[in-house]
Design brief:
Helix content is about 80%, strand content about 0%.
Length: about 325
């Protein structure tokens, strides 16, 4: 009897350890959404959806398709740099299945593992590293352009002291100068190859993680950053168009600035909710509100962006994942 109680207790403790963080993320996300909906009024949200401009919303949806394609193209370049004979269909499935895992796992960790399922000729360690590189290309763009717009906001909108702004800009410029020097340094990749060759058998997994990094070159990095930049522009335009579909009298240029700031802020705040639900909506309400957009328009736009760019691809990925299990 005692052993049964002990075993049951251990199972409960293990279950709590495994799912506690996930439950916290769900709770925080639901809590934030509930607060925002209560603050804005559910009835007002529905009324706003009924008055949306379908033309601009349709354009935003078409951009979502282009957004997915560019992500696929970037992922395809990385995968084929490792295995040139990998077929496009498997690469696309890998990306979409990764979406289904990333949307509902802490820090999108599941995406790093599930992208491996359809890429049989790539090791898990290689897929993890390639996924990391893929995400870093977009992150560099989000932080770089977001920081530049932030400096503009500090000077022209918030009237922050010039010494503070200049000091922060020097730190920003130094960081990115060092980052790009490392990324485009042949010596850095040569050192990686040398370091990789020194690892013994016990560190073989770490050695495999470094392999895709050592295969990078300046031309490939430039291409990936450029595609990620195009991806970033599309996401910003898409967000701005969705807001514009709710508020056609708004200044579109200011909506673009607000979209950039929302993405920048969301990136700086640690991922404490599933799909960053709540955080993105709160940031959208604040920044779009600065330029005269209603809270309802900002909230609805943020939720629609989540549906277009994450939820729909995740549903497709889940379908592919379920089919994969039956094969």
């Amino acid at each position: 009897m005692n052993s049964f109680i002990v075993n049951t207790s251990n199972l409960v403790i293990n279950w709590i350890k495994k799912y506690a963080f996930l439950l916290i993320k769900i709770s925080v996300g639901v809590g934030l959404l509930t607060y925002l909906i209560h603050k804005i009024s559910f009835r007002t949200i529905i009324e706003s959806l009924n008055s949306v401009n379908l033309f601009y919303l349709s354009l935003a949806f078409l951009l979502a398709v282009l957004n997915i394609y560019l992500q696929f193209y970037r992922w395809k370049i990385l995968v084929k740099n490792e295995i040139s004979f990998q077929d496009d269909k498997s690469i696309l499935k890998s990306l979409l299945i990764g979406f289904s895992a990333g949307t509902f796992t802490p820090a999108r960790a599941g995406e790093y593992f599930l992208r491996k399922l359809t890429l049989k000729d790539l090791s898990l360690s290689s897929v993890i590293t390639l996924t990391f590189i893929d995400k870093m290309m977009l992150l560099i763009n989000v932080v770089f352009w977001g920081a530049l717009v932030s400096f503009g906001m500090m000077i022209f909108y918030y009237n922050v002291d010039a010494y503070v702004t200049v000091s922060l800009f020097i730190i920003f410029a130094t960081f990115f100068a060092a980052l790009f020097m490392i990324m485009y340094s042949r010596r850095f990749y040569n050192d990686l190859r040398e370091l990789k060759s020194r690892f013994n058998f016990k560190l073989s997994f770490l050695k495999k993680l470094l392999e895709p990094l050592s295969d990078l070159n300046n031309q490939l990095i430039s291409k990936l950053i450029l595609i990620a930049f195009m991806n970033y522009i599309i996401i910003v335009l898409q967000f701005s168009l969705i807001v514009f579909s709710f508020n056609s009298n708004a200044n579109f240029e200011l909506l673009i600035i607000a979209s950039i700031m929302v993405y920048f802020t969301k990136t700086l705040i640690p991922s404490v909710t599933l799909g960053e639900i709540g955080i993105r909506e709160g940031a959208a309400i604040y920044f779009f509100g600065l330029f005269g957009c209603s809270e309802v328009a900002a909230f609805n736009s943020s939720m629609l962006l989540f549906i277009f760019n994450l939820l729909l691809p995740s549903v497709i990925g889940l379908y592919l994942l379920l089919r994969l299990k039956r094969v």
